[in-house]
Amino acid sequence: xxxxxxxxxxxxxxxxxxxxxxxxxxxxxxxxxxxxxxxxxxxxxxxxxxxxxxxxxxxxxxxxxxxxxxxxxxxxxxxxxxxxxxxxxxxxxxxxxxxxxxxxxxxxxxxxxxxxxxxxxxxxxxxxxxxxxxxxxxxxxxxxxxxxxxxxxxxxxxxxxxxxxxxxxxxxxxxxxxxxxxxxxxxxxxxxxxxxx
Length: 197
Prior knowledge:
It is built from six helices and seven strands; from the N terminus they run βαβαββαβαβαβα. The protein is globular.
């Protein structure tokens, strides 16, 4: 399996983030999982690459040319794709993975996550979309998902479209049990009005 990881280029405010991301990646890499990520060497992005490589795993980086220096492209990757734009980066990251996991990160991580989540809801892909919820980092987002459903902006079948897990075993279970939501444009919900779409 090949997993796309969205991760922050900063380490966060606690060593628990790097520790848990490293443990997650090492366990999966030790079982033959390959990784795709944003190509940087700093923050949690660097942890993803370093731990996977230390376990003998294959790591593919994707980075825009303008960020090769700013994000300090990782020099030791199995493959590094340097692309012209951020849009092409996001598309290739999504295309190359069989499943997608977001570990803690900032605005860039959220942008990547939301774009691929919207594409899932619209039926443009059916890949598992998972949050690695370290130290409750993603709890507010999980609460927002629940609120979206309560207020009529997500269908019942879409509530589980972002799966929150805390470790590699939870991730593997989420991928194994994954059933993508029906594409919204193919299967309209008769109870959903135009006002709530």
